[in-house]
Amino acid sequence: MKRLAHPIFWQLVSRSIRKDYLENLTGFAWLILQPLMLLSVYAFVFSTIFKARVPDSLDVGFVAYLAVAFWPWTAFSEAVLKAGGTVRANAALIGKVAFPSELLPLSMVVATFLMNMAGYAAVLVVLSLTGTDIHWLGVVAMLPVLVLLAVLAGAIGLVMSALQVFVRDVAQILPPLMTFWFFTTPILYSPTYLPDRLAEVIAWNPMAWFVGFVRAAALQGELHPGLAGIAIAVSALLLFWLGLRFFRRLSGHFEDFL
């Protein structure tokens, strides 16, 4: 936590936001438009062609059901992918400025989540205005869960960014792995419609818990993390600690390979 108070950390966050979103003419608009286009494609394919259904207990349309889970995943996936390349992308900075290099992937995770959550808020407002009953107290209450999701993204980002210094193929392997993770997470479908054995396997996917929680909070106003939520929180914090140790162990050799 002390490292997050480092003066350069928030400068890196600010630089990432300006470079990726604000200095680009269409940057912030694209932040919302790109997920909206993907959402439209997925909604059409799965609701019209594959006839995906929403659980009977939820009185919402498929687009709302999909959108509420889609944006947190987008923030998580984009944060992991962007954080993974930060050390190589800032090789010159590492060689010239003395600062904790783990701030590079962590600042990218924070910047990505901040901007995507701004887009998420805009989408929730649009859903509310178009007739979806959004439980705003539930949305506020799920903010700590979204922070926990950012912690998990930070843990993975630390490991991937360190590995990419030594194994460049990680940059090509990571995107398809994230795509596979996306389709094995119940975002486009409800786990209640899966065969029992497959549903049991999917339940071990930590992202399935995050998706279920944000849907229950935003669409039903229910906040029941349960024992699974406690296990996920402890695991995410432990993974972050391990990822940080892994990154620091390798960081001493970065300059030799950059």
UniProtKB/TrEMBL annotation:
**Entry's InterPro entries?**
ABC2_TM, ABC2_TM_bact-type, ABC_2_transport
What family does the entry list? Belongs to the ABC-2 integral membrane protein family.
Annotated localization: Cell inner membrane; Cell membrane
Instruction: Provide any one GO MF term from the record.
Output: ABC-type transporter activity
By what name is this protein known?
Transport permease protein
What species does this protein belong to?
A: Elongatibacter sediminis
For the keyword Transmembrane helix, the answer is yes
Annotated Gene Ontology cellular component terms? ATP-binding cassette (ABC) transporter complex
Report keywords, A-Z: Capsule biogenesis/degradation, Cell membrane, Membrane, Polysaccharide transport, Sugar transport, Transmembrane, Transmembrane helix, Transport
- Which positions, given as ranges, span the membrane? 28-50, 62-83, 103-127, 139-167, 173-189, 201-220, 226-244
